[in-house]
Amino acid sequence: MKLNSHVQAAFAALLFTGLLSCQKDMATITNKTSDAATDSAVKRANAANAFTTYTIRAGQHYCVGNSYPSFEAPALYFTVQFDSSAIYQSKNPQNQHDENKLYGFSDNNSLHHQYSARFGWRWCNNELELSAYTYNKGVRSDKVLGAVPIGVENKCAIIVRGDHYDFVVNGVITSVPRASKTVKAKGYNLLPYFGGDEVAPHTVTIKIREDKSL
């Protein structure tokens, strides 16, 4: 059966309208998929760049939620940012030189008072000093690494080099002895801790982000 010209025109218009509608639907789906992928990528990037804020409450040594997650790696890379809460005055002036603990790990698959490496920190002489704070065969040692500014990001690392550790602060490397026999650092993470002899005089907050490299 042949269709007259009016019916044919109407039928063609209907097909064209349907095709346009399908194209618009496909474009909408494609755009939504693209937007979702972009949002997901942004969220992953934000998560990768996110800091963890460690809080040590007034009157305490340990940070809130302190734990000892296992750690095994050839190096520990992280970025730290202090704020004005890192400025404090100890009750006993002699304790102003005590080392607070920042971040690091136990080593040699042992307890940290036997083998460990971490950064120490203190507010001393009106500046924030970082130090290399280690235990080897139960003997503690510390070495001042220098001062860092508060309110900015500072890149840090502890790199295992066989018989020594390389402590890195904003590109400056300081080597200290290592007696551990494991090829890589092996033990558990050590989180922020205030003291020394004294507890935190007020709430202290420290932002840390673990990195894959310097």
**Residue share in helices?**
10-25%
Strand composition percent: 35-45%
| CATH architecture identity of the largest domain | Sandwich
Task: Please give the largest β-sheet.
Answer: 6 strands, antiparallel
Mean pLDDT: 88
Fold and architecture overview:
This protein has one helix at 5-48, and strands spanning 52-56, 70-73, 75-82, 100-106, 116-124, 127-136, 139-148, 154-160, 164-169, 172-177, 185-190, 204-211. It is α+β, with helices and mostly antiparallel strands and 214 residues long. The protein folds into 2 domains: 1-50; 53-211, Sandwich (Jelly Rolls). The strands form 2 sheets. The chain has a 6-stranded antiparallel sheet, with no helix packed on it. A 6-stranded antiparallel sheet has the order 2-11-4-5-6-7, with no helix packed on it.
